[in-house]
Amino acid sequence: MSFSVEMAQGIRGAGPGGLACGGEILRVPATLHDGWTMDLRALALGLLFAAMWSSAFTSARIIVTEAPPILSLALRFAISGALGIAIAWAAGQRMALTRGQWRAVVVFGICQNALYLGLNFVAMQWIEASLAAIIASCLPLLVALANWVLFSERTRVLGVAGLLAGTFGVMLIMGTRLSGGADPLGILLCLIAVAALTAATLSVRGASGGGNLLMVVGLQMVVGAVTLLPIGLAVETWDVTWTPRLIAALAYTTLVPGLAATWIWFLLVARIGATPAATFHFLNPFFGVVIAWALLGEQLGPLDVAGVVVVTLGILAVQLSRLRSRQPVPPPPASAASAVAAPRTGG
């Protein structure tokens, strides 16, 4: 599961004071939504989310070496979707979604879950998990670039510098890997995948409000499963030996990046706001490479390390430029703040 500022804006639909989760309301100080304050708990949540998100590529690499990628991913989405919908229902959320939310369910279910993750799973049959993670980490750069070019979003000098640095870093890494024998088709599939997710993110700008966020995520996973299943049945054969390694990787991918990371992301956005939370994406290239190196023994050359550093700094610059473009909002008077009650999400 990947997240962007545009996707996270749906948190605001829970009301000015918080997000209802598991029957409780997460209270968020008004100054944190648009300000720059970040406490230790928010820092811990952000680091945990980045590590979970980045680890998905390593576990996916393990899965596709032992099982057909498309059918495996369809199975993962079926399980994650069912669990997500069950948890959302228990938290009081229902399928009474807005038109924009239903559009987000279909668009992200197809473009993110089926295309983006499906193409990455297929590609990782031939390329390393670290390379796939680095390419996928370019999402914030591509979204910022598209917002700048297509929607005339104001971009600061720091943001432009970040875009240029991130592009250079990715080109450096891909050039190094191609010269080292990386499969061009695998790289191409990863590039198409992140482009599809960028298009999906832009197509639902502002359409994710209205609450029921866990229900939306669960339904998106079901759409991904329904989309991938017939494709997998048509082009793959389910011939799998259930080894402990495969079972562990599939369970981890389903529960940790699939559900736990989603939950932590919502907690983080509810605590500090969408734009500050998105700054943690700058850690994804680092965590993706380190986890693949530690668990899969993937090799890293000096140019790979240099490229990762440049991409990381580029993403950080882009996110900080967006953060600084938002002026902090003064807190409301104490009497007014105490009178605001956040509504529950769902029915």
Kindly describe this structure.
- This protein is an all-alpha fold and 347 residues long.
- The protein has one domain (5-9, 39-329).
- It is built from 15 helices and two strands.
- The protein has helices at residues 5-8, 30-34, 40-64, 69-90, 99-123, 129-136, 139-150, 157-179, 184-203, 213-235, 244-272, 274-278, 284-296, 302-324, 334-339, and strands at residues 18-21, 24-27.
- Strand 1 (18-21) and strand 2 form a beta hairpin.
- The longest helix has 29 residues, at 244-272.
- Residues 5-36 and 327-347 have low confidence and may be disordered.
- It comes from Jannaschia rubra.
- It is found in: Membrane.
- Residues 42-174, 185-318 form the EamA domain.
Spatial order of strands in the largest sheet: 1-2
Q: Report the count of strand segments.
A: 2
Put simply, the count of helices is 15
Distance between the termini: 26 Å
Order of helices and strands: HEEHHHHHHHHHHHHHH
Shape, please?
Answer: globular
How does the major sheet shape up? 2 strands, antiparallel
Keywords:
347 residues; 15 helices; globular; transmembrane; transmembrane helix; Putative inner membrane transporter yiJE; membrane
